[in-house]
Structure prediction request, 746 residues.
Amino acid sequence: MRRPRLAVLTVAAALALTGCGGGSDSGGGTAAGKLEGNGPITFVTGKDTSGYVQKQVDAWNKLHPDERADVIELPESADAQRQEMVKNAVAKSDTYSVLNLDVVWTAEFAANGWVEQLNEADFPLDKMLAPTVETGKYFGRLYAVPITSDGGLLYYRKDLLAAAGVTAPPTTWADLRAACTKVRAANPKIGCFAGQFDKYEGLTVNFSEAVNSAGGTVVKDGKPTVDTPAARKGLDFLVNGFTQGYIPRNALTFKEEEGRRAFQAGQLLFHRQWPYQYAKANATDGSSEVAGKFAVAPLPGLDGPGQSTLGGHNYAISRFTQNKKTALEFIQFMAGEERQRANLQATSQAPTWGSLYDDPALVEQYPYLPVLKESILKAEKRPEAVQYNDVSVAIQSAAYSALKGDKTSEQALAELQAKLETLIGK
Amino acid sequence: MATTVTVPAPPVAAPPGEPRRGRRRGVGRLAVLLVSPTFLVLTLVVGYPLIDALRLSFFQKNSGVDPTTGMVQEGEKFVGLGNFTDLFGSDQFLHALRNTTTLTIASVTIEVVVGVAMALIMNKAFAGRGLIRASILVPWAIPTAISALLWRWIFQTDGAANALLGTDTLWTTEGIPAWIAIVLADTWKTAPFIGLLVLAGLQIIPAEVYEAAKVDGANAWSTFWRITLPLVKPALIVAVLFRLLDVLRMFDLPYVMIGPGKQPVETVSVLAFQEAIQFTRFGPAAAMSTILFLYIAVVAFVFVKVLGADVIGSRVGGKR
Prediction:
């Protein structure tokens, strides 16, 4: 009963869509169209929690007083941001110019013709870490330019490992379990490993990571491939974690923050987490009991180092905006090395430029950068799907029922495969 | 929901000597004129969205992807009752319908017991009565989303609930504990509402009735059962009806406290919201809302017609 405005909007959109007939081919061709028009634009992004987005945009505005960019801040939650952007696109409003898209939205926005196809030569893509560039592509064509990235890291307690005589962080799951057994001899109560296992987007990330790290895939070349022995081994690593006790049972309720609290309280030996935890767990104001006692390593896998899932944000140009040339130049400006460096220094968000990860001054500020670079270079993007939300929810249901022990891995994966086939085809 | 604005015209005997029909027509015309702004607003604000939601529930968005270009086919297609038949074949929706029903029955039952007890306490004259009355009403004054957050903290694995009970129950995962947590949180918040309405009912019971009971030697239990309860029944039924209508469309508590997608606490409203906003499938979402609307309408109808809930106060002071 609370949806009258949306209803009206959809009806209006539906009428508009039928009215314009087959006019959708301008976004669907193989070559990027010419982007024209200079003038003021808007930059649409999630809540500016660091306060630094405005400063980045100010830098642009100072140089381009006639082509000012205004920041439009959307809510903090990713779902709410996507809702706003979808609403705006369905209504074909020209209010939004440059969209700050989560990496998993590219397919949906591209396939619906809501964002312009871009010319690869316009951006320094060769300077960027290759997997991040892939997140901006759909059907082999570029629709969004990667600005920030993110990859999973294995946080580990170096003090406990050293005390137990383990010299190097584990690179395989077997090593991880062995190290845990040794540490538990002295610390019987410590939880061995955790990630983000509550039923939400984080579980999609962690499940995909487990499957990829065991040599499997969730979706390959647009086809679901999740009912394979390799995928089962990946899921079994997590499922066995709960049945054999190397993952604490309460990790079923862990999102990023719950897990971070547990790690900071010294309850976890290993923790799969994003880079943002580094500074918080190292805080010496008493909020963290593990400050100075941990380090990071690439994620472990079945037979060797594992594969992280990619996070991050890409910038794209709305198809319905005016002044597309300005929008293009704005993205070029933000994708440049100078702005990327400034953003990393101020916000610790991972950049997409490869060279920044090797910069001595930056590595001193963020010691995890080399490990993160390794993680991102090997990282896999999440399944590319127009109906990404459906895919993600299907993955979450299957993985969660297996983790809770309601279904066997075999059952869960067979059902997931069938579900994914109905969603994205065989 | 109950938007029946029937104006009960008192049966006036036609004055002698005047043509009855003419008089009536004049009054009728004036009445139509006076009521029309209200009807206009109701049509726009209630009627239009309802009818549009109904219309929407017969359509589905095209979702096919062109395999060569990767572009989505646009537009929507008419599917008749397809969305509805799909829903009744969908486990998820049937679960949601069942959750909505069980949560409603459980929480309203507990709320009635606790609420009536609260009202009886508030109705007694004792020192500090004002303080008790105020404190009982505090939960009702807190916005649901905020109280949902508070309860989420209480029920997280390292939260107060587990500390008090000495357990390590995973309240927020899928399972019966999540369902119990929701019932608890809902009771905490809305039992005061029932308490308040019942208190109002208690206060109009004349003291003489109780004195008479005392004279007749009735004990406390039979006084409550034979006098208080029957006399407070009209107020109680209205309170229960309001609560039923409220719980049947429960959204914010499970959504904020446990999160969407957790099967034991996924209500029809949560599912409809997810379908419309998360997946942008307005057709099935509208179908869900329509079914929920009908469900609520039936419950309201049963209450008003069968149990005689006096919602608009048309029988105040009157006997049946």
